[in-house]
Amino acid sequence: MKRYNVAVMGATGAVGTSFLQILEERKFPIKNIKLLASERSKGKKLKFNGRLYPVEVLTHDSFKDIDIVLASAGASRSLEFLPSAVKAGAVCVDNSSAFRMDKNVPLVVPEVNPEQIKEHKGIIANPNCSTIQMVVALWPIHKAARIKRIVVTTFQSVSGAGQKKVLELWEQSKTFLLKKKVTPVEFPHQIAFNLIPQIDVFLENGYTKEEMKMVNETRKIMGDPSIQVNATCVRVPVMYAHSESVNIETERHIAPDEARKLLSKAEGVIVVDDPENKSYPMPVAAEGKDETFVGRIRQDESIRNGLSLWVVADNIRKGAALNAIQIAERLVR
Length: 333
What we know:
6-stranded mixed β-sheet, Dihydrodipicolinate Reductase, domain 2, single chain, 30% helix, 7-stranded mixed β-sheet, alpha/beta, 2 domains, 8 helices
């Protein structure tokens, strides 16, 4: 079996460390691995396959002899450094928003549009975490009955905003339970025992950047610019795993039982839908898992061809690191 030289950009972050864990779990065919991060991580060492590897400072010369780059270092660094990686001959799978809407860059979820991978010109974009789990759940239904409209409300865990936000939720929760005043540092408001209906900055249309990512990325991944998407994205006091309430309108009628059958056969999906026994997807059950969990599948009684679903997935794994590695696996095949 051919083996590959892999570089991990943003190796010390939450997604970067998940890259290493998942590469090891899935026995990705690695010849050499290079760990790259900013100057502040210089001197750190990370374990991979039983060995400690030094973290190197990311530069434009970091990509010599590298075959595949897994990048999760933020949009500005991807824009700055990935062209150098491509010039050096590497194929880059980028987890940032830098190239997602570039018409020359495939935006890929392997369960949905793997054929787009071969269209790359050196960079393949990994979609937004909340978009990934939604399209994994909706694609089987779209193929069967064509989705015309999606209304989604997300309930996004703090880990989606970075490790500092996870620590802040922990500290705020302790402070609140001690009946002391909570002073937000990383968040604009208290997140412990609260919800914040804002993720990323507001745009002129009143939606946030995160919400418009879901609109535009969904259309691009599913290859249908006519799909109408309305999104509301909410930060919730959950450590890991995003949840979504998804309502769809389809071109032809599709019953809940038919939807369950389609989803039960779909790649990367597990149906958890037994309301009588209080069985449905929850973040605590999805944490650390690779699959997208779907439940609460029911008819929307307000319109003829409507369905409502509840979708949950680990945002660090399927929503980021795992999806990128699945793309890389398809590349090396």
